[in-house]
């Protein structure tokens, strides 16, 4: 059993082993209830996982889709240009 502190806003951090056991991720919805004088939490909905490739969709971007592997060259050129300006 893990002991955690409550912040002034009433917030707590759910211990990592509990989050992992229940599959709680960022964006998950948790339901709290009182059962027989004890607090009970229940995972209502898991947070959606995302990856870099989902970026334009997450932001609602409707333009041209450029694959990540094609962007790598642009990033390298941009970093080289920044170094050259120093």
List the helices and strands and how they pair.
Layout: H1 16-22, E1 29-35, E2 38-45, H2 55-58, H3 68-85
Antiparallel strand pairs: 1-2
Describe it.
A hairpin with a 2-residue loop joins β1 and β2. The model has no long low-confidence stretch (mean pLDDT 78). Helix content is 34%, strand content 17%. It has two domains: 49 residues, Pemi-like Protein 1, Chain: D (Ribbon); 34 residues, no CATH class. Strands 1-2 form a two-stranded antiparallel sheet. It contains three helices and two strands. It is an alpha+beta fold and 86 residues long.
Question: What are the defining features of this structure?
Answer:
elongated, 2 strands, Pemi-like Protein 1, Chain: D, 2 domains, 86 residues, single chain
Write a concise synopsis of the structure shown.
The protein has a two-stranded antiparallel ribbon with strand order 1-2. It is α+β, with helices and mostly antiparallel strands and 86 residues long. The chain is elongated.
Rg measurement, Å: 21 Å
How far apart, in Å, are the first and last alpha carbons? 53 Å
Approximate helicity band: 25-40%
What is the typical, i.e. mean, pLDDT?
78
| Largest sheet data | 2 strands, antiparallel
